[in-house]
Write a structure and sequence with these properties.
binds glycine, 365 residues, alpha/beta, Dehydroquinate synthase-like, alpha domain
Length: 365
């Protein structure tokens, strides 16, 4: 298992991807903590994980000589400041010091909340991510974004706090619900379109959802992780090229917000957004139509790119919601579009009438 490096000078860190990688977590954490055995590790785990997975990680940490503090989180509603305060209080009560380390074991919510707690507890302690969902492995566990929601909007409070390591073990994905698993391929196809077109070939003959063997999954996760590591290494604070990761997200976020959070999985929303952005790329940047057709075919093969039955979007509201996109500058949305596969272009202004036309076509198709 050759680590993938996020290259940030003194804050560089490895991403380990491989079947059985979680068995190494104690060694990785002790090494990342810097102080070797004898410190304390706060294991912040998703309460919905199989006990065997949590126990395996806990045993690995103890075997590496780390004193264990156990905390549990559950669901998107845990993603608020009150939870961060609860975690920090538990860290303090159980003697986690400045040489302590937070080990986040779960999906995006656990990573974001535990990561933010690690960023602010004692003004910042070490963090190791052990993502347990496909989406977190290919995206949120890499790059240091942490934070919580406000009642009014998601991810409004946070910090960039890079982990010391990321450990991705596809064996933990066996119990991931099918819909979650499938939806993550929205983000995976995105990496193929914005930075690694060769990945699209790997996906072209993908077995039915849930049917891919862990080693094959590990190869795909590693390619996505390498893409994200390269982008983050060049733009840690998201002031430039990191925006390419937002391909499909302008409409994706607007759909999630207008339909009500939780109705669509993030990857499902992004996949619909990619279809709209793909059509705009052909019209406005001359992207080859065949590239966008390939994207749409792949998404469809994963059951993505359309609203699930029973859900209806409100196109004018979706277009209006794009104005609140995080990447909007001076009130204007900067669209990520494609000149070709692997050649993204950021900061594009797009007339709302064209967004609406392509959104209608995608939603009606
Ligand atoms: N999820 C996009 C980023 O980390 O920048």
């Amino acid at each position: 298992m050759r680590p993938i490096e996020v290259d940030l000078g003194p804050r560089s860190y490895p991403i380990l991807v491989g079947t059985g990688a979680l068995a190494q977590v104690g060694t990785v954490v002790a090494a990342g903590q810097g102080s070797g055995a004898g410190g304390r590790a706060a294991l912040v785990a998703d309460g919905g994980l199989p006990a065997a997975v949590v126990d395996q990680v806990a045993a690995g940490l103890e075997a590496a000589g780390l004193g264990l503090v156990r905390c549990t989180l559950r669901g998107e509603e845990a993603k608020r400041l009150r939870t961060v305060e609860r975690l920090c209080a538990a860290f303090r009560a159980q003697g986690l010091g400045r040489d302590g380390v937070v080990v986040a074991l779960g999906g995006g919510v656990v990573g974001d909340v535990a990561g933010f707690a690690a960023a602010v507890y004692l003004r910042g302690i070490a963090l190791v991510h052990c993502p347990t969902t496909l989406l977190a492995m290919v995206d949120s566990a890499i790059g240091g974004k942490t934070g919580v929601n406000l009642a009014a909007a998601k991810n409004q409070i946070g910090a960039v706090h890079q982990p010391r390591a990321v450990v991705c073990d596809p064996l933990v994905l066996a119990t991931l619900p099918r819909r979650e698993h499938r939806a993550a391929f929205g983000e995976i196809v995105k990496y193929g379109m914005v930075s690694d077109p060769g990945l699209l070939n790997l996906l072209a003959s993908w077995p039915a959802p849930g049917g891919a063997e862990p080693d094959r999954l590990a190869a795909v996760i590693a390619r996505c992780a390498a893409s994200k590591a390269e982008v983050v290494s060049g733009d840690e604070h998201d002031h430039g090229r990191r925006a390419i990761l937002n391909y499909g997200h302008t409409i994706g976020h607007a759909l999630e917000a207008t339909l009500g959070y939780g109705r669509l999985r993030h990857g499902e929303a992004v996949a619909i957004g990619m279809r709209v952005a793909g059509r705009l790329s052909v019209e406005l940047l001359g992207c080859p139509a065949a590239a966008v057709a390939e994207q749409d075919r792949l998404l469809a093969a994963f059951g993505l790119g359309r609203l699930p039955r029973g859900l209806a979007a409100d196109p004018p509201a979706v277009v209006a919601a794009t104005r609140h996109d995080k990447k909007a500058l001076g009130g204007e949305v900067g669209w990520v579009l494609l000149e070709a596969k692997g050649r993204p272009s950021t900061g594009n202004r797009v007339p709302e009438s064209r967004v609406r036309a392509h959104l209608d076509a995608v939603l009606g198709a």
